[in-house]
């Protein structure tokens, strides 16, 4: 009886929006009826808001867990940083799940970032027939988690196409791969710029006269002759007559 009362709240006039309910005339009269669509949106919004921002935009979907009285849920799962990864699905009771998908939330409880024991305990506590699951593709979620958090997906109203934008560099591209390659090239050129900044300064007068032509190198400095040693050698090479003449 209590469940039936929660499905309908009688009201002679619209009293404002009520989360999860729609105001309409129905089989029980005029009032607020439980709206399954709004309940699903609310469930999605609360769960996704708790996910890390880097992979929050992954294409998630809802699935209902089936639990058999004797055979349980019949799903083989493994722990990951994003939730429970589905590995096998038994015929009984059968699940709307595929190997390679990841269960990131059950009944609003986000499993991502939990340790293996915590994740197992959270799932077992909520493992009831009809429990709501938030499911995503494990490969897609993993790829998004490794994306630069400064890269965001945006919409071009003129081209009617999605594009990707880097908030720090200001670069954009139609595909994520193209933008990542641009950012990678910019990062690779940074050491070259640092290396060029350490080069010898440009002679301004030479640049004004010759432009970007190769700057002439200064002539090598001449070494001073050792006068004392050269004079001694000269005297050693003279005979007695030369010395007397001097």
TrEMBL record:
Residues 185-246 are annotated as: Disordered. Residues 185-201 have a biased composition (Low complexity). This is PDZ domain-containing protein. It comes from Durusdinium trenchii.
